[in-house]
Amino acid sequence: MVPVMKTNAPFHLAFPVHDLDAAQGFYVDLLGCPMGRRSGRWIDLDFFGNQITAHLRPEECTKTNTNSVDGDQVPVRHFGAILDWDSWDALADTLSKAGVYFLMKPHIRFKGKAGEQGTFFVHDPSGNALEFKTFRDMSQIFAVDDAHD
User: Are 83 and 48 in contact (CB under 8 A)?
Assistant: First the structure.
């Protein structure tokens, strides 16, 4: 068995967008992500300490399928961030006030079970699904419970 490295290294994710200016408006202006390099075809962003790159590829911006998770239909292809509870609440409030549609409104998932968490989902302007989570107890992020579907 290969050991799992516990480095807390930032991840990198590249994803398609249909419009770089709209992506910049969402990620930089609305979410507050600092912008790194930008070309005519891509933008590097600091997404909560991780490097994400929005690539201009409108033909790859497609709807994603869902799976059932604790009674919710969760977009299979998604990414996001785990925030402390106050930051999660503040972000949900900011997005709500900006008129962003919630694919899944803020709520508690796995209530009373291992991994209990606050979660919500939104789409960026290109239809990429983002999930924002929070835990009252961060040690529950990788908690195991056979009762989850």
Answer: yes
Distance CA 46, CA 32 (A): 9
DSSP letters, the chain, are: -PPPP---PPPEEEEEES-HHHHHIIIIIIT-PPEEEE-SSEEEEEETTEEEEEEE-GGG--PPPEEEETTEEEESSEEEEEE-HHHHHHHHHHHHHTTPPEEEEEEEESTTSTT-EEEEEEE-TT--EEEEEE-SSGGGTT---TT--
- Taking only Cα atoms into account, the Rg of the chain, rounded to an integer number of angstroms, comes to 16
Distance between CA 19 and CA 16 in Å, rounded? 9
Q: How far is CA 146 from the centre of its chain?
A: 25
User: When comparing pLDDT for 23 and 7, which is higher?
Assistant: 23
pLDDT computed for residue 145 by the predictor:
74
30 close to 68: Cβ distance less than 8 angstroms: no
CA distance 40 to 51: 18
Q: Among all chains, which residue has been given the structure tokens 């402390």?
A: 84
pTM of the model: 0.90
Average pLDDT, the chain: 92
